[in-house]
Amino acid sequence: MLFRSPTRVVLYLSNHGKPLSAKDSAIKVTIQDGAKKSEVKLKVEADHLVGPLDAPLNKGAIVLLSGKTEDGHGVSARFTVK
Fold first, then answer.
1. What CA–CA distance (Å, rounded) separates 63 from 78?
2. Contact between 2 and 14 (Cβ < 8 Å)
3. How far, in Å, CA of 57 to CA of 32, rounded?
4. Three-class SS of the chain
5. CA-to-CA distance for 1 and 62, rounded, in angstroms?
6. For residues 67, 18, 32 and 61, what is the CA-based torsion angle, rounded to 10 degrees?
7. Is the overall model pTM greater than 0.90, yes or no?
8. Exposed, middle or buried by CB within 10 Å (0-12, 13-18, 19+), for 28?
9. Domain parsing of the chain, residue ranges
10. ∠ at Cα 21 (1, 53), nearest 5°?
11. Whole-angstrom distance, CA of residue 66 vs CA of residue 75
12. Burial label, 58 (beta-carbon count in 10 A; 0-12, 13-18, 19+)
């Protein structure tokens, strides 16, 4: 699950509805907001991953996730801000 606020993104990992540990996960967030493209570094906070945003995301911004969980499984997702 991906949550966002004006200042950060928060990612909770799960596998078929069961929570996964965020520890040792290496996931990159790429944001394309209009003509602007940026990457966000995620850090582990308790059971989730958190990364700062330079500015609030605009409607239509695309958020791409890619990387691996601590057990080596690949993660890939695409979200569009509504």
1. 6
2. no
3. 9
4. CEEECCCEEEECCEECCEECCCCCCEEEEEEEECCEEEEEECEEECCEEEEECCCCCCCCCEEEEEEECCCCCEEEEEEECC
5. 15
6. 180
7. no
8. middle
9. 2-80
10. 50
11. 5
12. exposed
Which residues lie closer than 8 Å to 23 by C-beta, 6 or more apart?
A: 44, 70
Pick the CATH number of 2-80 from 1.10.10, 2.40.50, 2.60.120, 2.60.40: 2.60.40
Model confidence pLDDT, tens digit, residues 24-53: 889 999 999 999 999 999 999 988 999 999
